């Protein structure tokens, strides 16, 4: 339900904001103190276009926190329970960041640019301050900064063809969650096969406003035969695909096990990170709630900005975090934090929605 | 220029969001991952109402970072060049926070709740992560957390009367930038004489959603004889009054001297804070740019979301950070970062605005 947003210098514009305005962006959200397009046509029109064609996304708000220097690898590892020791240069690693209590404070994709240089491509919280505070406090020899990099995402089933038209066929060889440095008009750019959809595609890490705009235009031009359109992370597609959103599905301080991120907690490896003792205790004891899928009965719902209570056996046993009508599944689907007794798929529960209480069924993630 | 905002769980609602919606909020901004009302009627109508009557502001987005424990005072001092050593319990202190390079990372009001307990009432950046990172890295014995406190501001010349009607005449005795703990229906609340306007007033730090809503309603009721209205920080009033906005006027990493915050840098005191060496160097060398006032000629302008270049002697010598038409001064006024040669009040410069280049004059702050 869009309301009005007053923008100012504080809600920073990206390299591409002028272009998305020309393309008729109809709503924004604010992410990392920056404008993130949230809709162009309807949520459903944007969805079908994304899954059938290809879209250009202004994700300049995916800010990079750069760690550089002799202790860069040590600092990166200190922040996450995922083992980064075996990562190679050119690899992208999804990695929850946890604090000393094991609580998630962000869930970036980490790009290993060199043995002593990393970019944390972050979700919506100031990891820059966290990393700087840690580095200073621990006395590490590392420079932490936010370079002015604005990623541009090309997402959708036709993304390879559009990217190949601009960068050449080399892009086709980039494997999933790997990146290469490719030239665009003589300017080297990090090009990763990644992005916040399950439709395939790339993220190009533009580090110069002029180059970024020229790249937008070149991709737009090259995309014409492929029905390219402007787009943005799509609520329907990302809930269907099981992508969790930090700040929506994962709240500050919840632990990775509650968020289903068990496989990114490599407690069996001899790695040093802040929340190790806390996570070992949590892993040993098990968690009492977890994010589960939910199919909610009834008419197509409107996305909610408030948590809807989930009821089971007459009491509150959880809450809906994100929910949407899926036109593909012809069902209301949701991510919900659910108490342990109600985890099995198929369990019947109820949801207190603004219009009244409706029945719902626990489901496995992803939905699609 | 409002555009649409898509809200979600990530753009958190405050204790009062339901009330501001009932009161017809016409636009929001997002601040500390939370909704901050940005307009009710027009900017100008809201302005006149604020300076003539009294307004209730939902500033729940002014999040509190609580430092508690034996090392709380040490951590608080480590973050700011302002001497906190002489502060007394019950005092509010405006204090820029700086990193190890002397760059501003936030400019909170610090409330000293006890010798070992502080609230940092923050501007728009995740000071929670910064403070936690430092505390962990430095091995300090302090608990850092964000309690769910949603400040409610009563601002305007009639604020004392409205507050006294709810809290009793004790509130009248609270001095500027001091707080008292007063009871509202048996619930103790921190009540400070402070707020982000120059019209006088209070901020009440509600720490419970139910109490907060009841307080909103009680103040609303008590305010009826005083023509109370819903309001929010007002761009006209705050630029007139010389209030700087972190993220708009003060950008991440700029130093306090560039931002005119010299008097909050107590380098002559034997205090220990992160950026001490950096600020000593900057203070000794002097800065080459500084925030200055600017009167911009021409028709009433529309607030800008982009920096407008300021030109002097044929070259770029600065940029406009915030600008607005002041109906009181019948002039366009602005905060601008300006190069040293052009600091004197009365200096003629030019501004590259969207509609063309216009003349402007350097002015002292505040305007009113």
Tell me what the structure shows.
2 copies of one chain form a homodimer. By secondary structure, chain A is of the alpha+beta class. In chain A, 20% of the residues lie in helices and 33% in strands. Chain A is built from 8 helices and 22 strands. A 6-stranded mixed β-sheet of chain A has the order 13-14-15-12-4-16, sandwiched between helices. In chain A, β13 and β14 form a beta hairpin. Chain A is globular and about 65 Å long. The two termini of chain A are 25 Å apart. At the A-B interface, β1, β2 and α4 of A face β1, β2 and α4 of B.
Explain the layout of strands and helices.
2 copies of one chain form a homodimer.
Chain A: E1 3-5, H1 17-22, E2 27-31, E3 34-39, H2 43-52, E4 54-58, E5 64-68, H3 72-79, E6 92-94, E7 97-98, E8 104-106, E9 109-114, E10 117-121, H4 127-138, E11 143-145, E12 150-155, H5 159-167, E13 179-184, E14 187-192, E15 201-206, H6 209-222, E16 228-231, H7 235-240, H8 276-285, E17 289-296, E18 308-312, E19 315-326, E20 331-339, E21 348-353, E22 356-363
Parallel strand pairs in A: 4-16
Antiparallel strand pairs in A: 2-3, 4-12, 5-10, 5-11, 6-9, 7-8, 9-10, 12-15, 13-14, 14-15, 17-20, 17-22, 18-19, 18-21, 19-20, 21-22
């Amino acid at each position: 339900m869009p309301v009005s947003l007053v923008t100012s210098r504080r809600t920073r514009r990206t390299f591409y904001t002028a272009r998305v305005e020309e393309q008729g962006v109809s709503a924004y959200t604010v992410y990392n103190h920056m404008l993130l397009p949230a809709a162009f046509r309807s949520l459903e029109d944007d969805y079908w276009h994304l899954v059938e064609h290809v879209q250009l996304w202004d994700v300049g708000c995916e800010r990079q926190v750069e760690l550089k220097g002799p202790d860069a690898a040590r600092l990166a590892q200190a922040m996450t329970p995922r083992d980064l020791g075996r990562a190679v240069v050119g690899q992208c690693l999804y990695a929850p960041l946890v604090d000393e209590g094991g609580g998630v404070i962000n869930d970036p994709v980490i790009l290993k640019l060199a043995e002593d240089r990393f970019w944390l491509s972050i979700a919506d919280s100031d990891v820059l301050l966290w990393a700087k505070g840690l580095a200073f406090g621990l006395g590490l020899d590392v420079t932490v900064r936010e370079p002015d990099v604005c990623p541009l995402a090309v997402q959708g089933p036709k993304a390879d063809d559009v990217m190949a038209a601009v960068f050449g066929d080399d892009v086709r060889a980039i494997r999933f969650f790997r990146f290469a440095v490719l030239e665009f008009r003589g300017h080297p750019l990090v090009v990763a096969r990644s992005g916040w959809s399950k439709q395939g595609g790339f993220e190009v890490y533009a580090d110069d406003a002029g180059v970024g705009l020229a790249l937008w235009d070149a991709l737009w031009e090259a995309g014409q035969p492929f029905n390219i359109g402007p787009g943005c992370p799509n609520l329907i597609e990302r809930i269907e695909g099981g992508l969790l959103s930090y700040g929506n599905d994962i709240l500050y301080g919840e632990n990775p096990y509650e968020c289903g991120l068990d496989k990114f907690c490599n407690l069996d490896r001899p790695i040093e990170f802040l929340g190790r003792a806390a996570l070992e205790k949590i892993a040993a004891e098990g968690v009492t709630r977890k994010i589960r899928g939910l199919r909610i009965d009834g008419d197509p719902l409107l996305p909610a900005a408030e948590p809807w209570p989930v009821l089971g056996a007459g009491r509150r046993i959880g809450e809906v975090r994100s929910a949407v009508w899926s036109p593909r599944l012809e069902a209301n689907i949701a991510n919900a934090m659910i108490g342990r007794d109600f985890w099995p798929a198929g369990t019947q529960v109820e949801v207190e929605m603004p219009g009244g209480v409706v029945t719902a069924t626990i489901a496995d993630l992803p939905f699609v």
